[in-house]
Known about the structure:
By secondary structure, the protein is α+β, with helices and mostly antiparallel strands. It has one domain (6-104): TATA-Binding Protein, CATH 3.30.310.10. The protein has 2 helices and 7 strands; from the N terminus they run βββαββββα. A 7-stranded antiparallel beta sheet has the order 1-2-3-7-6-5-4. A hairpin with a 3-residue loop joins β6 and β7 (79-85). The longest helix is centred in the C-terminal third of the chain and has 17 residues, at 88-104.
Amino acid sequence: MLRGEMVHIKTKHFTIKTVRSCPTDPDRYLVRAIPTFSYSYEAIKALAAAFPQIRFSDTFLAAKITEGPLTILVFAKGAILVRNAATQGQAVKVIRKIVDLLAKHV
Length: 106
C-alpha cells in the first residue's frame, strides 16, 4: 500500500478502502476499513470491555477509542477509521482486533 493511494484490500472480515497521510501529521497514516458483515450499536457498546477508554456518541452513532497516539472511530453505519497510525501494519492490526471483537457480538 502506498501513501495517498486508494486501495481495495479484501480479507474475510473487512475491506481496506483508503490509506493516506493524516491531515494533522503527514508522517502518520489514516486508514479506513469497511467490515464485510453488519453489526449493531450494541456490538459497539460491547467493545467497552476490551477498550476501557472508549467514548460513545449517540449523535454520530459512533464509538471513539484512544489508544496511545491512535484514534479509532467505529461507526454504527459500518466503517472503522484509524488515525495517527505509525505504520499501515499497525492500523491493520488494530482494525483486525476491533473487527474480531465486533464479530463475536453480531
